[in-house]
Design goal:
Layout: E1 10-14, H1 19-30, E2 34-39, H2 46-51, E3 55-59, H3 65-79, E4 84-87, H4 103-135, E5 138-142, H5 155-175, E6 180-186, E7 192-193, E8 204-205, H6 211-214, H7 227-234, E9 246-249
Parallel strand pairs: 1-2, 1-4, 2-3, 4-5, 5-6, 6-9
Antiparallel strand pairs: 7-8
Helix pairs in contact: 1-7, 3-4, 4-5
Length: 280
């Protein structure tokens, strides 16, 4: 934004080792922030090599209270304050429909998905809450297209991301006027997401074949496309009037038409049809 829009704010960010989280960490540092970068993967440690003392990596399971306490303590012990908590860690159910899940696996899969996608941001906010109130800081949670629409994942993932939207609104209410709470709802991002181990899933690409053609904007935005939205919501200067808001960045998925993705996109089967030039 301006190179200093975060003004030495201290930010705790989960899911920081790769994808959107790693890109946002880079953007936060560029805007003047100091970041406690948290992830269950040891890949997060390399952020300290890249950014020196601007980043403190913490390897922790954020679905457990102890992991969130460790992250908050790292910020307080190093810099004495917390200005922003970003709950970005998430796993996917690989778009698995309910009827495809064996009944004896459903309970375990539910607890695994909701543990990371819903419980973890609650634990993170709670662990950082006293410091956030003291700094009159803010919370940013990563939602999804699936926070407001069906078909953005399977039954477990979609339900969990709808729950994140509910957390944004309820916590914004509960914590006002001391702490602002907002969220970002990405649509399609070129990342690799950890699957649900209770369903036998591993890490997989989040972008499926054919996705680009289904998007109104007709291209897969890079993970860095979301940096500015997270920076906006973390900034005291630029989002002072925002709380309870879920900012959608879905490449136009929510306005996709029935017959074709966008008004000037050729219909399927007519990809080579010339699009009329705009009139003066």
């Amino acid at each position: 934004m301006g190179g200093d829009s975060l003004d030495d704010q201290v930010i705790v960010l989960t899911g920081a080792a790769a994808g959107i989280g790693r890109s946002v960490t880079r953007a936060f540092v560029a805007e003047g922030a100091r970041v406690v970068a948290v992830d269950v993967s040891t890949d997060v440690d390399s952020l300290a090599t890249e950014y020196g003392d601007r980043v403190v990596p913490v390897v922790a399971d954020v679905s457990r209270w102890e992991g969130n306490i460790a992250a908050a303590a790292a910020a307080l012990d190093t810099w004495g304050r917390i200005d922003v908590f970003v709950g970005n860690a998430a796993i996917t159910d690989s778009a698995t429909a309910l009827e495809e899940i064996d009944g004896d696996r459903l309970t375990g899969a539910f607890h695994e998905v909701f543990g990371v996608n819903v419980l973890a941001p609650l634990l993170g906010v709670r662990a950082c809450l006293d410091a956030l109130v003291a700094s009159r800081g803010s919370v940013v949670l990563t939602g999804s297209f699936a926070s407001t629409h069906a078909g953005g994942g399977g039954s477990l993932y979609t339900a969990s991301k709808h729950a994140v939207h509910g957390l944004i609104r309820q916590l914004a209410y509960e914590l006002a006027p001391d702490v602002r709470v907002n969220g970002v709802a990405p649509g399609v991002a070129p990342t690799r997401l950890k699957g649900t181990s209770a369903l036998g899933q591993t890490t997989a690409d989040s972008v499926l074949d054919g996705t680009q053609r289904a998007l109104p904007l007709q291209e897969i935005a890079p993970v860095s496309a979301y940096d500015g939205i997270f920076t906006l919501l973390a900034s005291r200067r630029y989002s002072a009037a925002m709380t309870g808001t879920l900012v959608t960045a879905d490449s136009g998925l929510s306005v996709r038409g029935i017959a074709k993705p966008g008004g000037r996109v050729p219909a399927i089967g007519h990809e080579h049809t010339e699009v009329p030039a705009p009139r003066a």
